[in-house]
Structures are given as C-alpha cells and as structure tokens.
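Summary for the lay section of the report: proteins are chains of building blocks that fold into shapes. Here we show the chain for protein-serine/threonine phosphatase and then a coded description of the shape we predicted for it.
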Amino acid sequence: MGICASSKRAEQEQDADESVVYVMDDQGGGAGGAGEGAHAGRKVASLFSQKGKKGPNQDAVILCQGFGVEDGVFCGVFDGHGRCGQLVSKLARDYLPFMILSHRNALLLGSGAAVDDDDAVFSDASPSSSTDGSGVPSPSPAQLLEEWREACTNAFEAMDKELKLQAGMDCNFSGTTAVCAIKQGKDLVVANLGDSRAVLATMSETGYLSAVQLTTDQKPSVPQEAERIKRCNGRVFALKDEPSVLRVWLPDEDCPGLAMARSLGDFRLKRHGVVSEPQVTHRRVAPGDLFIILATDGVWDVLSNEEVVSIVCATPRKQHASKAVAEAAAQRWRAKYPASRVDDCSAVCLFLRDQDWGTTVAAAKAKAAAARAPNGRL
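The coded shape description reads as follows.
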C-alpha cells in the first residue's frame, strides 16, 4: 500500500531523518511543488519533531491535506519503541492515514451511500434525518462516531497485520503509539492508541482559556487496561528503581517491560492483553475551540496540558507553535531529570480558527479582564 499516487509528499526541511511529513492531495492542495506544499501545510497546522538523547528519533508526525474532501485534514503523531521503533513509527505514519480512509470509504459503499470516484472518495453523505444546511444529508453525531470507530478499528487492525508482513522488521518487542485527528468541516474525530495524547484548547464566552484532554493515556496504571492484561496472563508491575511506572511483562519472563497497554506491533504481548484497538471519539467544533495539540509522551511526561496550551498561545507565530512546545519539553527534561537522557519530543498543532493568533488571544484576555472588573470596568 503506502502513500496514494494522487498525493504529493513534502518533507520538512529541518528534519533530515524524515520524521516530519506533509502530504497534499492533488485536488485539495493545488499544483505547487514540494516546498510550496509544506508552506501551505503550515497554514493549517504546525509540525515539529525533536530528537532526544536516547538514540535515533523514534517519533514520526504527519499532516495530510485534502484528506478525502477538499478541506479535509488528517494529522497524526507516532511514538516508536523497541529496537525497530523508528521503522515501525514511520511505516505506521505512511500507511495508516490511507488505510483509515480506505476502510471509511468501504463502509460508505457498503451502506449504499453515494461516493464519487473522481473525487477523493470521502463523504459524509449517508442516510440520516439531518442536513448540513445545503440539503445534503449528513449523519447524526452518534452515527458519525460509530462509522469512524469501525473504520479506525479496522484500519488499526490492518496496520498491525501489515507490520507482521514486513521482511527484516522484527516487531515482537517493537511497536508504536498512534494518536490521530481527522477534521471534516465542523466534525472532529480523534483516534488514540497508547500513551501519546490529544488536548484541545478552547475559550469560553467570557474569554477564559482552558485545556480539554480528548484522549486517555492507555497505560498499565489504568485499572481497566491492567485488568484486561491480567486476564490474558500478562503481568503488570513496576521496577524498584521506578516505582511510579507500571509496565507490562510476559507471564514467565521479566521482559519487555512495556510502559503502555495498547500499541501497534509488540506481537509477543498481543496474546497477553496488549491490543491494537484504538479509542475513538467525536466532537463538533465549537466557536470557542482554537486548536488541538497532538504530542508524544516526551512532551506530556514533563509538561501539563495547561502548560502546553499556554506555550502555544504565547508563540508569536502559530507556525512555530509545535517547535516551541517540543523545545520547552526538552528544556524541562534537562531541568527535571538531569541524570536522565532527554526523550524524543514531537507535536502537531492543528488550528481550528483562521483569525490572527495574537489578536485572538489578546481579545480574549481583554474580555476576561473586563468580566472580572467591578461593573464591567477596568
């Protein structure tokens, strides 16, 4: 499989190891060259991956524009682990978006919904009692979530099978997380597998900015995850030198010590409760929603949701938002764990509003200050 022939791929110039990739559909992205494609991508999202001090960069990030429909967007962050982790994360990055799209289209065709093969064959046109205002039927939020959940679940399963077929890539103790956001008009779907995370920055009517976590970190410390693993004879415990980090172990061997409960790959643990089924959620973008941050645990292990949102809002140019987050995380790693090696830190910031960044945040702060002042006056 791989990247479809109708797409153009542009790698971010700063990243020589190809951790960051932009993909533009011909119809959605125009006829510009690779450099122009990356430049256009930065208007929609900010992508950055910073290599840590633990070896090769095992993170990978992607932005796909024209994802199925002209204004459709897919963005994803993948955090590899194990000996082949850097290969697994990049393979998942390159295959998974189009697997999800393929399975979504198959569901639409199976349901009898009209799909135009001349377009990017992505449509929300399916039987429903509601419309989008143009007279075109659109599914209810519950129906949309169920369709996307099935498409993502099938695609993640297919991705796992694809990894098994890769010659020369031993994924018994190697794998990757995956957190993905798909935006189609006002609909936002998030699929998460592992301990990377998606956080939404949203602003109230009174101008207060808040961070809303859209995913659950799927770690062995989550009771439901641990119960599933133990039912499958896997073991969950922490090492003495890191008592706060629960890990997954084989029934009769003290390996591999996986720090997450779900992943792509890690086939020796698949029979012991580590699954490749993502958690999928849906949200209708609200007027106050500003942006979504997807990031690997190299960011979330040292920065809170609120800190990351604040860093993005304080970045003068939103195109540099993800770089600011990754660099802040690396700096925090050095300060908080001086004896430890800095982890890879990668992020994607998907912008949900077109307004000027500084003007939006400044107006919100002024609105919040006015609301706090007596009689509405400063």
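Put simply, here is one thing we learned. The chain has one domain: 7-211+277-376.
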